[in-house]
Amino acid sequence: MLTLDTSTQFGVRVAERLAQDEIIWLTTISASETPQPVPVWFLWDGETALIYTAPETYKLRNIARNPKVSLNLNSDPIGDDIAVFVGTAWVDHTAPPPDQHAGYLEKYGDRIINLLGMTLESYTATYPIALRVRPEKVRGGD
Fold first, then answer.
1. Model confidence over 53-76: pLDDT tens digits?
2. 9-137: which CATH architecture?
């Protein structure tokens, strides 16, 4: 399990970004061993990132074959302020659906409706699979 050292400037910044950033890049490995990065919405709970996805996606097939993944926060405009996590992903069958997850709705509810033009129910029908990623290591910096 990853423990961020919030006594350092890097640890404080990463903790803030995990709470505030809207996008994180999830990279899985394909059957041909090619990295497959994709931007995703996520909710950080202090130990894991929760990501909802559609069924029958490459990321689900890749994770079923190899659960080792990376998560990357976007850099600033000049390539600084990065954080790269390495960890393990799995399908979380115990997570509530997106339209019943208070924290997820607080973070993304308006975007689901106003940006995507979906209802909460149609979003949940489209993205019913909950993925969890537990980071084990982090690197980066300014």
1. 999 999 999 999 999 999 999 988
2. Roll (2.30)
